[in-house]
């Protein structure tokens, strides 16, 4: 399947913005074959250090630590600057034979019964059977499709985020400077794992103009902390924004799909945005592959919006709640509990031996018959787990794993989708053929 990724800029995004990789996305990256690179490029989140009048006043933990278990080997966020995550995914795409055309700005598109024609600011048009718009909160494609976004302003105060080189601060803590009588507002400076940079975040009064220059940022840091202006030696990247929460009214129009910030914008609090965006693509990707290469019915693509839009809506509420201090980062922000129990792709037919996991849930890790399940799941295939049940071979395109009943799963037959969720669960093979026909076979 030929696929073309186009990027308006002449290079990949340079900033650290989405730096938190949640545990569920770590599992996705494991499946995509980039986990080792992600782990090598980042590190754990540091403990927050609260400063008052130039003195250390106490520690702040953003979330409570959680021990890894066999079924959930990744339990805490992993910090990787967004620019580095993009580099790793870009390298993996090229390794798999994919390509990215930079400097290609989309200005419009037209679609018909057979495909979509995409127009660019310069250069020839491109023709494709389907288009995925992941072009951000100001999505040109979404606007061209006439899809509105519904939402609210989370915080009217403008916020600065910048990647800086700083002297005079240790890299063992996330340095937090609360507003004080002499300061003008909140400032946090976090060492970016795997780099020599710090990410600074500062809030300003409503209506303020944020100065993104070196001198402007130096002034903010000096006024709000004990650091001197010259301790900020370089601005690597800087941006300002006003936190919003908005959801596209639709995630699909004909042959065009919205993913990531083109479909949902949010407060960065809770570290949900990049992760939800990755999982949008993960959900849609296997379905496009099944339709384009596997002969699955085109109706399978309808389940993308059905499954992802409710999750995005919940994510917006969660991010807003964390931003306003109502909800603490924890189990919900790790995203391991997200699933698709209500999806039309989900069938739960077991009558006995039901464990914690039901059809529609994330398929946990385990070692079954000497096989690690995450190793068995890795790749764009379906996997049939026969746990405490007999199961015949079901074809070369489905990986079969046999073993005893498992604590998380209970006993039964579990058909695990290419994106790591249980699609079908039953006590017997009855009904499997019908499910396979509905999703286009395996």
Q: How would you describe this protein?
A:
This protein is α+β, with helices and mostly antiparallel strands and 442 residues long. The chain has helices at residues 23-32, 35-41, 82-95, 140-145, 214-224, 273-293, 302-323, 331-334, 373-377, 432-438, and strands spanning 5-7, 20-21, 43-44, 47-52, 55-60, 78-79, 100-102, 106-111, 116-120, 126-128, 131-133, 149-153, 159-166, 173-177, 187-191, 198-203, 232-241, 244-248, 252-253, 256-258, 264-265, 347-348, 367-368, 371-372, 382-387, 398-403, 412-416, 422-426. The strands form 8 sheets. A 7-stranded mixed β-sheet has the order 5-4-14-15-16-13-17, covered by helices on one side. The chain has a 5-stranded mixed β-sheet with strand order 22-28-27-25-26. It is built from 10 helices and 28 strands. Strand 4 (47-52) and strand 5 form a beta hairpin. Its cofactor is FAD. Keywords: FAD, Flavoprotein.
Fold topology:
Blueprint lengths: L4 E3 L12 E2 L1 H10 L2 H7 L1 E2 L2 E6 L2 E6 L17 E2 L2 H14 L4 E3 L3 E6 L4 E5 L5 E3 L2 E3 L6 H6 L3 E5 L5 E8 L6 E5 L9 E5 L6 E6 L10 H11 L7 E10 L2 E5 L3 E2 L2 E3 L5 E2 L7 H21 L8 H22 L7 H4 L12 E2 L18 E2 L2 E2 H5 L4 E6 L10 E6 L8 E5 L5 E5 L5 H7 L4
Parallel strand pairs: 1-7, 4-14, 11-20, 22-28, 25-26
Antiparallel strand pairs: 2-6, 3-6, 4-5, 8-9, 9-10, 12-18, 13-16, 13-17, 14-15, 15-16, 18-21, 19-20, 23-24, 25-27, 27-28
């Amino acid at each position: 399947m030929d696929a073309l990724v186009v990027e308006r800029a002449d290079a990949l995004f340079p900033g650290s913005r989405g730096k938190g990789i949640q545990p569920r996305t770590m599992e996705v990256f494991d499946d995509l074959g980039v986990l080792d690179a992600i782990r090598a490029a980042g590190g754990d989140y540091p403990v927050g250090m609260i400063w008052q009048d130039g003195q250390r006043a106490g520690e702040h933990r953003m979330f409570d630590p959680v021990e890894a278990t066999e079924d959930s080997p990744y339990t805490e966020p992993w910090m990787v600057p967004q620019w580095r995550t993009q580099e790793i995914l870009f390298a993996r795409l090229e390794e798999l034979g994919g390509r990215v055309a930079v400097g290609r700005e989309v200005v419009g598109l037209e679609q018909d019964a057979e495909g979509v024609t995409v127009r660019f600011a310069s250069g020839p048009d491109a023709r494709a059977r389907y288009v995925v718009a992941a072009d951000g909160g100001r999505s040109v494609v979404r606007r061209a499709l006439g899809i509105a976004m519904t939402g609210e302003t989370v915080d009217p105060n403008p916020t600065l985020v910048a990647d800086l080189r700083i002297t005079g601060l240790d890299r063992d803590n996330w340095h937090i400077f609360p507003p004080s009588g002499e300061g003008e507002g909140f400032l946090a400076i976090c060492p970016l794992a795997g780099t020599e940079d710090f990410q600074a975040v500062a809030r300003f009064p409503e209506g303020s103009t944020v100065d993104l220059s070196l001198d402007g940022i130096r002034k903010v840091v000096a006024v709000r902390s004990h650091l001197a202006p010259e301790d900020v030696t370089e601005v690597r990247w800087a941006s300002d924004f006003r936190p919003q929460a908005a959801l596209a009214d639709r995630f699909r129009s004909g042959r065009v799909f919205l993913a990531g910030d083109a479909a949902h914008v949010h407060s960065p609090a809770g570290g949900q945005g990049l992760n939800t965006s990755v999982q949008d693509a993960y959900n849609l990707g296997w379905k496009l592959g099944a339709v384009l290469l596997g002969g699955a019915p085109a109706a399978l693509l309808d389940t993308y919006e059905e499954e992802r839009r409710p999750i995005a809506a919940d994510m917006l509420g969660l991010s807003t709640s964390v931003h306003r201090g109502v909800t603490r980062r924890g189990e919900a922000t790790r995203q391991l509990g997200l699933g698709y129990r209500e999806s039309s792709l989900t069938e739960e037919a077991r009558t006995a031996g039901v464990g914690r996991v039901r059809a529609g849930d994330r398929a946990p890790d385990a070692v079954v018959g000497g096989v690690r399940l995450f190793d068995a799941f890795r790749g764009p295939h379906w996997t049939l787990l026969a746990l405490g049940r007999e199961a015949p071979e079901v074809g070369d395109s489905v990986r079969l794993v046999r073993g005893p009943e498992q604590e998380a799963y209970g006993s039964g037959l579990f058909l695990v989708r290419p994106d790591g969720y249980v699609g079908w669960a039953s006590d017997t093979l009855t009904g499997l053929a019908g499910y396979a026909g509905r999703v286009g076979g395996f």
